[in-house]
Amino acid sequence: MASTESKIVEYAKNGHFASPVSRRSFLAVAGAAGITLGVAACGGSTSDGSKSSGGGGGKVKEKAWIQVTTLSNDFFVAFNEGGKQAMKALGVQVASLEDQGNVNTALGQVGNVKAAGGKSIFGTPATEAQAAAVTKAAQAAGILYASSYTAPAWYTPADADKWVRFITPMSTKIAEATARALFDEVGKKGTIIHVPGQKGSSADDQRTAGLNAALKDYPDITIVTASPGNWTSEDARKSFTNILPKVKDFVGVFAQNDSEAAGVIAALDAQGIKDKVVTGFDGNQQNVQYIADGKQFLTSATIGGLTAGLLGVTTFDALNGVKFKLPETFLAQGALLVKPDSADKVLKSIYQKQLPFDWAKMSKALNPDSWDPQTVLNPIDPKEYYAGVKQDQYKLNSAWDSADIEGVRKEYDAAFKTGPLFEFKSDLVA
């Protein structure tokens, strides 16, 4: 027969309480009686080992870490803020890490998270080398890792079970659409100044590839390439300013991200140069406002804060026992091409201090039958995504041979039913 103490322990773990307060009162009384229950009043661990409150009741809520290149860049600031908002909604504490695009710094941070007893990191590595190094370090440390934008060709989460998700916009496809829109806007002729991003980044390579793909159909367009803008407005401003004396005339600028576009716009304003068509990527709030104000022509809005939130929710779900199918771990995120006719509407519906997404609803752990990603997430077929790229340093894992990519694609399409992006669902490029 079970002892009285064991019955109390069992009730504390599984009994129904009218409110968290009544449960805490019961636990306090039991503790005063000297009965060790080994259960928590609510939630998961914080950084000091105590239990946190908030969303995701009854779930594991281990502290999470967000890893970005620098918080002096608008995109990374938005990414970090969105990650924090998502984790707060789930009742999870979070800390931010800046690695400055340095592989050794990033690896040291993984070691620090392990030493602190951390269970998860999500972020956006600066280069393919960093992406591979951090993924492998997290794998060795037993830390869940979710990432975006950059990864070596043919290297996928099938190669590391702690790498629970990779999300990226389809940068080549989006860049080609952006370039075509830019070329059409300038009358299909003239010189375009191209400001690249950071060398060694997948997104940089893919956006340049998209530009070049579009260029084939526009024989009267000439591209002049500046030095890398390194994803920052200041480096892009300097790069653009330095190349201006070498360009007699130009009609537009293809900047590799929105922070770079902001640097270009600052340089144009400083020199009193007007009526140049500028495009960017990522959908930074400042740049969407520039589009509304007539300073920028186009951006592709994936919304960095949304990307981070999706990654954070992924690590939360994995810590709470959700097993993702392989195609769920390698996803294209929908991007919305924002032009002058839609900028005001997008600003009002999406760009608020608190992003208008239901983060808890994205969670399969919290809503196993009614989860909703609130954006287009389209499983990537690596064989199509990396077509034409040699399987050199990495080879495609054979697990993909039996992956039900189409089945997961239908599942995610059907799950997207709500949120501020739903009205733009058919316009999201993924």
Give a verbal description of the structure.
The chain is α/β, with parallel strands linked by helices. It has three domains: 1-41, no CATH class; 64-169 and 305-322 and 342-421, Response regulator (Rossmann fold); 172-301, Response regulator (Rossmann fold, 3-Layer(aba) Sandwich), CATH 3.40.50.2300. The protein has 14 helices and 13 strands. It has helices spanning 4-14, 20-32, 74-89, 103-115, 128-141, 171-185, 202-215, 233-243, 258-270, 285-293, 304-319, 343-350, 382-385, 405-415, and strands at residues 64-68, 94-98, 120-123, 144-148, 163-168, 190-195, 221-225, 252-255, 277-279, 299-301, 330-333, 336-338, 377-379. The strands form three sheets. A seven-stranded mixed β-sheet has the order 2-1-3-4-5-11-13, sandwiched between helices. It has a four-stranded parallel β-sheet with strand order 7-6-8-9, with helices on both faces. Strands 10-12 form a two-stranded antiparallel ribbon. The longest helix is centred in the N-terminal third of the chain and has 16 residues, at 74-89. The model is unreliable at 1-54 (pLDDT under 50).
Question: What is the topology?
Answer:
Layout: H1 4-14, H2 20-32, E1 64-68, H3 74-89, E2 94-98, H4 103-115, E3 120-123, H5 128-141, E4 144-148, E5 163-168, H6 171-185, E6 190-195, H7 202-215, E7 221-225, H8 233-243, E8 252-255, H9 258-270, E9 277-279, H10 285-293, E10 299-301, H11 304-319, E11 330-333, E12 336-338, H12 343-350, E13 377-379, H13 382-385, H14 405-415
Parallel strand pairs: 1-2, 1-3, 3-4, 4-5, 5-11, 6-7, 6-8, 8-9
Antiparallel strand pairs: 10-12, 11-13
Helix pairs in contact: 3-11, 4-5, 6-7, 8-9, 10-12
